[in-house]
Amino acid sequence: MALRDYGNFQTEELTMKSNVVESSKQLDDRSISNLNLLRSASTHLLENVVKSNTAVINGSMDLAREARTFSRTSLQANLDAWVALPTCKNLSELSECQAELTRTATSQYTEAASNIINRFTNIMSSISAAVREPPRRL
Questions:
Q1: Long-range contacts of 122-127 (CB under 8 A, 24+ apart)
Q2: Which CA distances in Å does 96 have to 49, 77, 83, 86?
Q3: pLDDT tens across 107-123, in order?
Q4: Of 5, 53, 73, 101, which has the maximum CB count within 10 A?
């Protein structure tokens, strides 16, 4: 009876070893699958970071150009107003020159603010569009 118990013990031990080996293979397969998933997700994340940074840089350059254009036109309007001031012959002409400068400046500021808001909105849209793109298949 002792030999039979020893034989059963060996059979059970072999069965346990094969179960451990099989479980180990399944674990390895899952680990490889998880690593592939992690690699794919990391790649997608980095691609999105690059796309969004590119959109921010391009948009920043657009905003800088818009600010430069506004500065140039408002400076020119101010210079024109300052040149016109000494030519005023009386207080009513002086008042009219100042009113014209105020109208021009208000119009320029309003237009510049609108342009900057539109450009900023475009930047946000391009960042959002870049991030929403589906991941590439490897």
A1: 122/59, 122/62, 123/55, 123/56, 123/58, 123/59, 123/60, 123/62, 123/63, 126/55, 126/58, 126/59, 127/52, 127/55, 127/56, 127/59
A2: 54, 15, 14, 13
A3: 999 999 998 899 889 88
A4: 101
